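Margin note from the TA: students keep mixing up input and output lines. Inputs are the sequences; the output is the structure of the whole complex. Example:
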Amino acid sequence: MVASTSTVATLELLRWIPLIPLCACAINIFFGRALGHRTAGVLASAAVGVSLALALYVFWLLPATGIFHDLLYTWIESGSFRVNLSFQVDALTAIMLLVVTGIGFLIHIYSLGYMAHDDGKVRFFIYLNLFIFFMLLLVMGDNLLLLFVGWEGVGLCSYLLVGFWYHDAKNTIAGNKAFIVNRIGDLGFILGIFLLVTELGRQGIWTLDFAELPKHVSLLTPATITLITLLLFVGAVGKSAQIPLFVWLPDAMAGPTPVSALIHAATMVTAGVYMTARLHFLFAPAPYTLSIIAIIGAATAFFAATVAIAQNDIKKVLAYSTVSQLGYMFLAVGIGAFSAAIFHLFTHAFFKACLFLGSGSVIHALDGEQDMRKMGGLRSYLPKTYWTYVIATLAIAGVPLTAGFFSKDLILWQAFSHGSYALWLVGVVTAGLTAFYMFRQLFMVFHGSSRVEDHVKPHIHESPAVMTVPLIVLAIGSIFTGWLGAPEYLWGSLWDRWVQPVFGGAHGAEHGPVTTEILVTLVTVAIVAIGIYLAYARYARTGTRVVPAEAAAGLYRVLLNSYWIDEFYDRIAVRPFTRVSQWLAQIFDPLVIDGLVNGVAKVARGFSLIWREAQTGNVQHYLIGFLAATLALLIYYLRQL
Amino acid sequence: MVPLDYYLILSAIIFAIGVVGVLIRRNLIIVLMSIELMLNAVNLTFIAFANSLGSMDGQVIVFFVMAVAAAEAVIGLAIVISVFRHRQSLDPQEMQLLKW
């Protein structure tokens, strides 16, 4: 099949969508202190608000199969290789734009309240605006190199924001971990780009433009495409926290909660999914890569869900849940259902941001407490937070007619109709686990009797409106965004009509018999219901002390420590690396490197000791040399005559 | 009319005396005088050529050289005096501070 032809129009407005947050960032860097904490925060939020307004306007202008394009200037030109600094918006980018600016805007507003008492507020908003800029660069760039610039930029901002409270060494280490683990993925990513450029260059095609690349994919051999896509996927594994590089995401929760919501749930970590969808024309003809993606996605989804069950830190549960949901998205990518993956990305952004901001509201109310064993019964203290949390929990658990139900069900149905029954089964079981751990969290935090420490109890308060309004907006989104992609037997999918043209020839929605589809959905719903019931039975009436699961103490310990993966990596990678580094620092560097450098210096010094004898300090000796040289020159030129 | 060659040979001899004086004498005042000798040897060459070619250019340059030589003598002697006050000696071989 040929990709549907699309109309390209120039729209100079596009450049302002990323540039306005960048301008606000620059203003805050130079004048933030002078403006004061409040104004700086409002300025940062307003900038993202303007970007959101522009994004909405562009979305409204954009025809179904159209592409808007905006060329700033040519960035690199070398022979026939040319990279432009230019932006493009098609249906896929438009959705990402709305997610980034929309959720970004809400989280900026929320941060005004959450970070109100923090000394580093100006710095926080500088980083946050910079992040929005890079994320927009990532989704709007019209070539792979620009995407990579954004990709690295958001990684940098993630590092800065995870280690935002740098006075605590633990946070800095978490930031370093996030950065270093991402380096591993990014190495694969950039190697993939190099391979793509050189392989196409060998055929005389020098381009990285998303508009040009699909036309030339047929020049590549299947083996090359497989290798390229595998390398690119390594980048996605790092950025989107899939097995085996997921370890940084749970630790990244050391950052402020709005950061966890924006970067480590709604936007940055989904960049890997966006990248595979953007390059669907490369991934679709690589069945081997796709099956690996599907397996890794399903394994991650299941694995992270099991770990989330045993966590006691309110944010760690959500972190593992994010890893698990990202696994679902890659499962969808792996079976070629790019549209379903982006749909889940879209709905997930709403309910996960809502959950994170809700947890932030709880943490805020409890004066920084994150341990769920010291919560409980908060329902009456934090009514707004509670109700939004309930809605988002229903959505992520996949209760019918919420956003998560539609998107997750779409993925599971695609897996089933694609014939990947094993993947489907893993997905369904994971859905049950998801329902269990999310309701376990809901019950532990908001229901049962209060286990809040006595000195905190008097201060428990509902968050101010600046924090609850974003929660309410996101909760509404957690229900209704899913309705865009309803299955055919309900009212049909607006989503597919909108996004499918982007993926053109790529594998689209497969439609099996409606009765099977409904039956598959019912199975999922039943398993979700069981998960919710088990959580209810076990945790809904938790007393003043959370009883550890004694019957399964061993398994519980395994899950609590997330299968000791961190310790395993520490043993096989970090410690040997540290030991080699120590050897290099203490033995190799002083002896070999310093020896070489000092040796060169010694040789030079030896020659100097000889030659300096010529310098007597006596003017008359110098003049003799002068005379001799003059005579020599004179003789030389006289002989030329 | 004396041939040009004679002037040039005389000039070369005076120049060589000046060079040797600069190189070997142990008294700064003599060294300065030797420099004057070299300059005047060159002046003589200029004049000789000016005369033989019938051009005024060489004579003009000689005036410049004389002016510069006068200035150089003034500064040179001032330095010599201050060096002597400082060290009670004018032997250039003793002035070797400016080395490694």
